[in-house]
C-alpha cells in the first residue's frame, strides 16, 4: 500500500510502524480509555522490561544466503500460518471502534492472520466467526460455574473455532494504577455479550477476618482439577496462556495441553514478573523442541518476532497494537498494522540471512 493510497483510506501518511498507531490513537481516544489500554500494573516495571529486554538483544547476521525458496509460513496445531504472528485475545474492542471485534476480524482475515477471540469480546463469538478468518481460536476465562464455561466452549466448537486458549495468569485483576488514576470505567454500551446469559452464583459470605482477594475473588479461581475437567470435556486442542515458569510449562505438557503461551498479559497482572522474552528459553528447554510455544507481551517490531523465534517461540501474538490500529482506521487499520509487521519481519529475515523460519535459531542472536 503506498502512502498516497493510505491517505485515501484514512490511514495517516505518517503511520509507518506499530508505534505510530499508538501515537495517533492516543490523540483520538479519551484519556481514560488510552490509559486503560496502555497501562501496566503498579509501577509498570514488568511492562517496561517487556520492551527493554527485546531491545537489549542484538542480531547476528549472515551474508550470502540463498533466498530462492524463501518462506515465512509455519504449521501450528495442524493449521498453516502465512506468518508466525497472530492477534492476542483482547477484551471489549467496542471501546475503540463501533464494530469492535468484527472489524478486527475482518482486518485480520484480509491479510490471512489468525485471531484469538476473548471471552470478554464485545461482539458475539458467532458473528466474529463469520468474518472469514482462516484461523480462529477462542480464549477461555473459567467462569465461576463449570456449566457456564462449558456452554461457552460448546458455542465456540459449534461456531468453528479450532483451539481453546485458557488464560490462567489473571484469576484476580492486577491493580493498574494508571487506569485507576484516569478514572477509567467501562461505558454501559460495551459489554461482554457472550457472558450475558450467565447469572453470577451467590458469593460466599466473608467474615471479618477473610481477605476479599484471597478468600473472595480467589474462591472462583480455576484449579488443576478444572483444567483437567476441561481437557476431558473438549476435543479441541487446549493451550494455556500466561506461562512464565518452566515447571508449569512441563506440568501442562504432561497434563495433555496442546501448547503454552509465554505471557505476562502485557505487564498487566503482577508487577515484578520477568519479561516474556527473558523467560522464553527456559520454557522451551523444559518442553523440548517439538512442543508448541507461543509468546506475547511487547511485540512491536518485525525484529522482535525474529528474536522470539530465535529463542524458541513458534509464533507470537500482538495485543495492544490491534486496538490502536482499530481506533485509527477500523478493519483497514488492523490489516495495515499487520502488513507493516509482516513486512518488517520479512525484512529482518532478509537482512539477517534467514530464508525460512527453520533458519531462525539462537545462532541469529548475540549472547550478552
Ligand atoms: C488484554 N489481554 C487479554 N488477555 C486475555 O487472555 N484475555 C483478555 O480478555 C485480554 N484482554 C486484554 C485487554 C487489553 C486492553 C489488553 C492491553 C490486554 C492480554 C493480551 O492477550 C496480551 O497478553 C497482551 O496484550 C500482550 O502484550 P502487548 O502485545 O499488548 O504488549
UniProtKB/TrEMBL annotation:
Pfam families: FMN_dh
Needed cofactors: FMN
Keyword flag Flavoprotein: yes
Keyword hit for Oxidoreductase: yes
Keywords: Flavoprotein, FMN, Oxidoreductase
CDD domains given in the database record: alpha_hydroxyacid_oxid_FMN
Superkingdom as given in the UniProt entry: Bacteria
Domain FMN hydroxy acid dehydrogenase: 10-368
InterPro entries according to UniProt: Aldolase_TIM (IPR013785), Alpha-hydoxy_acid_DH_FMN (IPR012133), FMN-dep_DH (IPR000262), FMN_HAD (IPR037396)
Family statement: Belongs to the FMN-dependent alpha-hydroxy acid dehydrogenase family.
PANTHER family hit by this protein: 2-HYDROXYACID OXIDASE 1, S -2-HYDROXY-ACID OXIDASE-RELATED
Protein name (record): Alpha-hydroxy acid oxidase
Organism: Allohahella marinimesophila
Amino acid at each position: 500500500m503506498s502512502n498516497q493510497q493510505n491517505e485515501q483510506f484514512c490511514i495517516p501518511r505518517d503511520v509507518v510502524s506499530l508505534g505510530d498507531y499508538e501515537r495517533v490513537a492516543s490523540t483520538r481516544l479519551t484519556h481514560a480509555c488510552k490509559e486503560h489500554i496502555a497501562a501496566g500494573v503498579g509501577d509498570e516495571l514488568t511492562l517496561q522490561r517487556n520492551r527493554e529486554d527485546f531491545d537489549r538483544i542484538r542480531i547476528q547476521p549472515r551474508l550470502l544466503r540463498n533466498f530462492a525458496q524463501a518462506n515465512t509460513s509455519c504449521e501450528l496445531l495442524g493449521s498453516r500460518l502465512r506468518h508466525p504472528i497472530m492477534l492476542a485475545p483482547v477484551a471489549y474492542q467496542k471501546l475503540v471502534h463501533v464494530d469492535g471485534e468484527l472489524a478486527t476480524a475482518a482486518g485480520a482475515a484480509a491479510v490471512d492472520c489468525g485471531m484469538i477471540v476473548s471471552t470478554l469480546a464485545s461482539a458475539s463469538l458467532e458473528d466474529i466467526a463469520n468474518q472469514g478468518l482462516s484461523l480462529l481460536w477462542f480464549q477461555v476465562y473459567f467462569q465461576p460455574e463449570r456449566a457456564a464455561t462449558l456452554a461457552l466452549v460448546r458455542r465456540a466448537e459449534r461456531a468453528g473455532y479450532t483451539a481453546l486458549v485458557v488464560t490462567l495468569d489473571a484469576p484476580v485483576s492486577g491493580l493498574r494504577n494508571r487506569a485507576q488514576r484516569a478514572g477509567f470505567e467501562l461505558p454501559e454500551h460495551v459489554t461482554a455479550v457472550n457472558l450475558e446469559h450467565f447469572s453470577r452464583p451467590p458469593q460466599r459470605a466473608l467474615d471479618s477476618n477473610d481477605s476479599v482477594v484471597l478468600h473472595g475473588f480467589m474462591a472462583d479461581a480455576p484449579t488443576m482439577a478444572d483444567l483437567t475437567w476441561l481437557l476431558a470435556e473438549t476435543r479441541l486442542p487446549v493451550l494455556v496462556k500466561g506461562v512464565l515458569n518452566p515447571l508449569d510449562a512441563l506440568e501442562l505438557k504432561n497434563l495433555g495441553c496442546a501448547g503454552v503461551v509465554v505471557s505476562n498479559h502485557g505487564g498487566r497482572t503482577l508487577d515484578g514478573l520477568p519479561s516474556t522474552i527473558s523467560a522464553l528459553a527456559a520454557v522451551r528447554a523444559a518442553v523440548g523442541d517439538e512442543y508448541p510455544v507461543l509468546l506475547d507481551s511487547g511485540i512491536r517490531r518485525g525484529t522482535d518476532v525474529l528474536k522470539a523465534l530465535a529463542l524458541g517461540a513458534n509464533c507470537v501474538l500482538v495485543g495492544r497494537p490491534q486496538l490502536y490500529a482499530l481506533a485509527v482506521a477500523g478493519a483497514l487499520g488492523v490489516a495495515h498494522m499487520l502488513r507493516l509487521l509482516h513486512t518488517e519481519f520479512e525484512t529482518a529475515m532478509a537482512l539477517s540471512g534467514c530464508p525460512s523460519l527453520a533458519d531462525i535459531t539462537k545462532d541469529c542472536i548475540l549472547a550478552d
